[in-house]
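#onboarding

Welcome to the new folks! Below is a worked example of what a typical request in this channel looks like: someone posts a single protein sequence, and someone else replies with the predicted structure as tokens. Don't worry about understanding the tokens yet, we'll cover that in week two.

Example request:
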Amino acid sequence: MEFRLPDIGEGLTEGEVTRWLVKEGDAVRENQPLVEVMTDKATVEIPAPRTGRVASIRVPEGKTVPIGTVLVVIEESGGAAAPAPVAAPAAAQATAATRPVGHAPAASSGDGDGAGGKALAAPATRARARELGVDLGRIAGTGPRGRITVEDVERAASGSRAAPARPEPGRGASAPGRAVPVPAARPAPAPLPSGPREERIPLRGVRKKIAEHMVHSKHTAPHYTYVEQLDATDLVALRNEAKRIGEARGVKVTYLPFVIKALVAGFREFPLLNASLDDATGEIVVKRYYNIGIATAGPDGLIVPVVKDCDRRSLWEIAAEIQRIADSVRAGKVALEDLRGGTFTITNAGNIGGVLATPIINHPEVAILGINKIRETPVVRSGQIVIRQVCHLSLSLDHRVVDGAIAAEFMNRVVRLLEDPKLQLLETM
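Example response:
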């Protein structure tokens, strides 16, 4: 049978074949994962519609084709390839997206599974393995169906790169009777990478979609970034208490629920921040619902799942929903429904670092908030220098919709609510 790229909904008209999970001649069973296809929303895994043998793969990896294109010919068990059915339903499951992989010169690494097969790993994971010189065939994957993740590769690399220290030869005494100290031993330098001095990695799949989306946003919306300092001392104390209570409830509480609640209060006062610009009609679309996207790194790329109706959820409900969607992204099982309908986006690098940032707007939204690292910082309070927990919030905006004065007033409102968190309680009374 000829199996065609099915219509997986969301009004999509085409998809990019990012990875074949089988090869010509392989035996397949019905509903076995067959191919990964990238859409505008996510990477979806499309299963085999029949049991049989892969007679011919018609679309190579990296090619974008319209809905209805023949992807593969499957010779059904007991006979030759049969004509395609009128409609080929798809039980497509979304998989998550990951951090960009560096393109440093890399040592060659094996892609086998130790038994003549092929290790189950995404292209980004393979690239990271090549970069670190890790043999995928020696790793047991912790991802879905035993898939090897970037974290698996990095754990394997950190466990095998420890080099024995090598003492540096000491110099003799410079004069009779006077001892000269011997320099402390230093670790042996890391070996230089072998193989080619350059590596070419095809720009496709999640990385390609991110590139297209970011370029479109930067070319369409005139960006500017407004940065404000946040004294998060009281917020840190409240979050620590909420974290303790959340653990008893089985909910992981981060800073994001508090930030989201402050944002919603700000949107009510400054609704242009929770809007989009319809370029086709020339209309600003102000949203009276509050769906906050959380930029999340998973095993195959960076995507933005959405916490919906944040004005109707309690802080605990928002924390639980953030945990749910983040877990689904990292497990490679995020649903398409969780990726649509966002009105504003948060990108949080605070757990990694950063003083400030200039995030790119998640078009067609008009603003995105970057959260940077909370640090102990000397500040002046009542004429005295004291140590406080401080971070910077970076707000990038579309200048066609939001002027600088509105951005500053909005940020002042959000910062005030976060610096004095009890005001968030008054917002709900």
